[in-house]
Amino acid sequence: MTDHLVIRRPDDWHVHLRDGAMLEAVAPHTARQFARAIVMPNLVPPASSVDAVRAYAARIRKAAGPGFEPLMTCYLTDGISPDEIERGYAEGVWVAAKLYPAHATTNSAHGVTDIAKIAPALERMQRIGMKLLVHGEVTDKAVDIFDREAVFIERTMKRLVKDFPALKIVFEHITTKEAAEFVTAGPATLAATITPHHLAIDRNAIFEGGIRPHLYCLPIAKRSIHRTALRKAAVSGSPKFFLGTDTAPHAVHTKEAACGCAGIFNAPVALEAYVRVFDEEGALDRFEGFASLHGPAFYGLPVNEGRIALSRASVKAPERVAAGPGDVVCYLGGQELGWRFEGPVV
Ligand code: DOR
Ligand code: ZN
């Protein structure tokens, strides 16, 4: 039995770091485990301009401390200018753009209402090699919430992949068997991130003994057959699947509310939560690929220098992290993790 794992330093290919006092409270947790992170732009107002994103990156560097590199993204809006997108990419301000279908999730009111409206931006991104990150859910209220990802593949994703054959697309935080199969069968330009929580919970967990607001996120966790398919994809060794926590902090009073926010805060225990899944699947030898190698390869970035260690150990996850707007409840808070993040190997 492997009790000690040393892997190249990993990156998180999907995080929400927020801003202000919340940013200051959560950024060190991501920076403790990861060298780089793809930072989501769903702020209020959305981070859509070169100036706004450059300033946001500076605030993140300050909050996270030395040794952490935020990889920034631009929030796609209906009217976004292809020239602005190209300028941000050329100046090294951002590496990708995020497509939120309007009203699909937290702070997505300024998202895209129709792909046709961003076609010039996508053409430009395809030409310059900038990546497209997709929140893959339809917003049609007539579609059941548990079907919104699968329907998005049919209505939008298939056409995106066909119409922009050279555009590199990340299908973010996939939650279904359909998405895992679609990405597996797709071209090399198509990849996906998978969260630790979607590898561990199914939709029953959200209602276990009562409603569990801290397990509510979007896309929502699905039936157990989908979790099984995601686990299979994650441990398959395929370079199309890589780590993206979707850590999404919200102050406790905004989660435990009549209309609670979507998002699971997993940054303090992200690697422990993932490695546990690989351990359960008998795939610890594939963990480094998923956590540290496949993401950089897809983004065309070098892998990190340095290594980190994880050990089998009895460790309890922290319950909460104090933040300016209120405490944030941690994923797996108070539970036994079975693994400990040991930090950098010197
Ligand atoms: O659960 C989620 N929370 N899903 C998202 O897509 C956004 C995120 C957030 O920003 O809170
Ligand atoms: Zn997200």
Short structural summary:
The mean pLDDT is 97. Helix content is 34%, strand content 16%. The protein has one domain (10-305): Metal-dependent hydrolases (TIM Barrel), CATH 3.20.20.
Q: Which helices and strands occur, and which strands form pairs?
A:
Layout: E1 4-8, E2 12-15, H1 20-33, E3 36-39, H2 50-64, E4 69-75, H3 82-90, E5 96-99, H4 119-128, E6 131-134, H5 148-163, E7 169-171, H6 177-185, E8 190-194, H7 196-200, H8 224-235, E9 241-243, H9 252-255, H10 270-280, H11 287-299, E10 307-312, E11 320-321, E12 328-329, E13 339-344
Parallel strand pairs: 2-3, 3-4, 4-5, 5-6, 6-7, 7-8, 8-9
Antiparallel strand pairs: 1-10, 10-13, 11-12
Helix pairs in contact: 1-2, 3-4, 6-8
What does this structure look like?
This protein is α/β, with parallel strands linked by helices and 346 residues long. The chain has a single domain, classed as TIM Barrel, CATH 3.20.20.140. It is 34% helix and 16% strand. It has helices spanning 20-33, 50-64, 82-90, 119-128, 148-163, 177-185, 196-200, 224-235, 252-255, 270-280, 287-299; strands at residues 4-8, 12-15, 36-39, 69-75, 96-99, 131-134, 169-171, 190-194, 241-243, 307-312, 320-321, 328-329, 339-344. The chain has an 8-stranded parallel beta sheet. It starts with a strand and ends with a strand. Zinc ion (ZN) is lined by residues 14, 16, 40, 246, 248.
